[in-house]
Design goal:
about 80 residues, mainly alpha
């Protein structure tokens, strides 16, 4: 009977080690995922800023053209 309990105790020890390793792996994966998400967030913000700058440039150009046309029509 004691061999069975020893075997069960050994299996529980292995299971505890496996769970501990799995927790560490999950923590590591979570950390890597957080880093990737931060990278993607930074890239998305940069793309949004570029898009907004392009749109602003287009609006300025259109405004300038409208101003020139109106000033020519007024003369």
């Amino acid at each position: 009977m004691s061999k069975i309990f020893a075997w069960i105790e050994e299996q529980l020890g292995r299971l505890a080690n496996f769970c501990s390793d799995a927790i560490e792996d999950l923590k590591s994966a979570d950390e890597k995922l957080s880093e990737k998400l931060d990278e993607l967030d930074d890239k998305a913000r940069a793309e949004i800023k570029k898009y907004n700058n392009r749109q602003c440039g287009k609006a300025v150009a259109v405004g300038f053209i409208i101003g020139v046309v109106v000033s020519l029509l007024i003369k």
